[in-house]
Amino acid sequence: RLTSEDLRGKVVLYNFFYTGCGSRCDQMNATMQQVQDGMAAVNLGAMPVEFVSVSFDPAHDTPEALRAYAAGIGADADQWRFATGDATLLKETIGGGFEVYYDPAADGSFQFDPTFVLVDGWGIIRGKYRYQVRVPDSERILRHIGVLAEEVQKSKGANKLIYEAAHLFLCYSP
Predict the structure, then answer these.
(1) Whole-angstrom Cα distance, residue 82 to residue 69?
(2) Cα separation of 50 and 38, whole Å?
């Protein structure tokens, strides 16, 4: 079981996939692995970072299948989680919350735009990396995580209140 409360206060890099998707997901997994491996070079301070891959195919991607898949690609289970859930809830969460859309095809595959979403510790989307627009590269994502870590490190005392107020105005302006 994984909820947004489990990830509150952490920076999270999400991607959305299904285990049967083949080369597109292999490329996404490689990018996620490169980001995970590159985290040692980013000055995170005390900022926790996690990776979450969400399968939108719960009929085939059971928790056991996801564990085997994660082990097969060498995912670090301490930092990289794999999740799925109720099909209706997944559609609402992935589409409504992350604005990532997918549709099942007649052959059992899915049509989708491979996407990574970077979410800050306050649950606000800070970056989207779509393959349709530009192939996400690990260096770009790592750079953005580093910028976010710097913001978090500078958000102490009165600066924290100023940062959070400015962030709210920027993110929620009319």
Answers:
(1) 9
(2) 13
Query: Higher pLDDT residue, 83 or 45?
Result: 83
Question: 122-148 pLDDT, tens per residue?
Answer: 888 888 988 765 666 888 899 889 888
pLDDT tens, 77-116? Answer: 899 999 999 999 999 999 998 999 999 999 989 999 889 9
Task: Specify the amino acid at residue 86.
Answer: D
- For the record, the structure tokens of 123 come out as 């649950």
CB 26 within 8 A of CB 15: no
Distance between CA atoms of 45 and 38, rounded to whole angstroms?
15
Q: Where are the alpha helices (DSSP H) in the chain?
A: 4-7, 23-38, 63-73, 87-91, 98, 138-154, 157-171
Sign of the torsion formed by the C-alpha atoms of 62, 67, 71 and 74? positive
| Length of the chain as a residue count | 174
